Task: structure prediction
Amino acid sequence: MTTQAPEEYRRSIREVADAIAPGWERRRALIETTATPVREWMLRELAPQPGQTLLELACGAGDTGFDAAALTGGGRLITSDISPVMLDVARRRGAERRVLNVDYRLLDLERIELGDDTVDGVLCRFAYMLVADPVAALAETRRVLRPGGRVVLAVWGAPDDNPFFSALGMALVRAGHVPPPEPSAPGPFSLGDPERVRGLLEGAGFTHVRAEEVAVRFSFPDVDEYVAIHADASGPMALVLQGLSEAERARLAESLSAALAPFRSGPGYEMPGVAVVAVAA
Result:
């Protein structure tokens, strides 16, 4: 748990999402390309059926939910996010894709303002790991699902399996730009153990649970672009990077050169990543 009061933490998460939404929109194509194996796993395991009502939580640009909605025929999609600015990104993406039968809602994972037994399926990609109380968030997910409904989710795996994120985090700590992370606080790796994810789902009342890992690849041309991608889209780390002076950012990039060197691939870089994915009913 974070040492911040829950309401203060929720407010800070919303403010971060509002701030990075423009960068997330700029990087949407890159994010979706990287996340393709995760998105495909989630859609396959959710197996949407014609006429169903689906809910996407923490939608970002919304593509995972829009892909799922396309499989429901005349079904309904509720696309939601805690950030009104990010939800506008999803609205624009939905209009671009000409998605019909979609309802855009501001929703908090820990307090989903929907009735009991409202939806047939829930999708949530890379968000449960960031909430103050994942137990409450998963219990809320279970509450809004109809009997037999499924949730599919993804979170990032362990730090050692995700150097794309951990290399930058360690560099920021070494440079004194951020304090070392609190071991039990929400964050990108807080749900990185598949067994913990399985236990949380079972504790929330799900009886048929499966969790596994899916590999992804991060590609970028150089260290400066690596930093720029994170400055656009990497949550609280993005705000830290945006606040650095030009000289501080140059020193950070120089310090990252050695850490990223093992991942040189041709003219650019490729870094491995691992997502923990789960399906539960």
Summary: Residues 6-158+184-217+272-280 form a domain with the Rossmann fold fold (CATH 3.40.50.150).
